[in-house]
Design brief:
The protein has one domain: Porin. By secondary structure, it is mostly beta strands. The chain has a 10-stranded antiparallel β-barrel. Helices cover 12% and strands 52% of the residues. The two termini are 27 Å apart. The protein is built from 3 helices and 10 strands.
Length: 237
Amino acid sequence: MKKYLVLAGVLGCFAQPVSAANIDLANFGSVQADFKSFSEDLGSALSYKAVIPAEPLGVSGIDLGLEVSSTEVKSLAKATGTTDTNLIVPKLHVHKGLPLNIDVGAFYSSIPSTNIKLYGGELRYAILEGGVAMPAIAIRGAMTKLSGVDNFTFNTKSLDVSISKGFAMFTPYAGVGTVWVDSTPDATTFPGLKKESFQQAKTFVGANLNFGLTNFALEYDKTGKATSYSVKLGFRF
C-alpha cells in the first residue's frame, strides 16, 4: 500500500526525474552475466503493462490515463553508475474500443534526466465480453521498444490471457502470460557483450475503480524475478 501511495503522489508529475542518470552499457565491461541480469530486470520493468480489465470498451469507449510503474531493478545501480535500484516509469496511456470486442492500446514514456524513452502498444480481443453473471476473458498481444540509449536496442513482445468481473464501479482482474525479450548491445562499441534473447513468465492482478468519467486503477505484476506496481489515473467513457 505504501508503494501505491508513493506512485499516486507522482502521477502527472512527468517533470520529476526518477533516476537521475543515464544507462551506459560500458559499466558492464565485458561481464556477460551482469549484462544478462540487467536485461532480465529491464524486461520485467519495461514489458507491457496494460493496467486495465479484460472487458472490452465498446465501439465508442476510450480509456485515457497517466500511469506510473515502479519496479525494483537490482542491476540498475551498476548500469547507471549510481545507487538507484528502483526504476519508476511514467506513461501516457490510451485505449480505444473497436467493433467485434477488439481494443487497441498504446503508451509513450520519456523519463526526465535520463536517456530512457519507451513506447509500446497492444491488440486485445475479448473472447467473452462479460455481463451481469459472466466474467470477461481476453487475449492480448503487446510490444514495447526502448529508445534513447546509445548503441543499445531493447524490445519486448508479450502474449497473455486475462479475466475480469465487474461489481458496480469496482472491477478486479487477473492474468497470466509470457514475455519475450531481445536485448542487443552494439557489437562494435561493446565487443565483450553479446545479444541476450529469452522469455519470462508473467502474472498480474489488479483492480479498476470507475467514478463516472474519472477512472482509477492499480496493478501488481511479476515478470521474471522482478515485481512491478502500477497505478493509473484518468478518464474512461
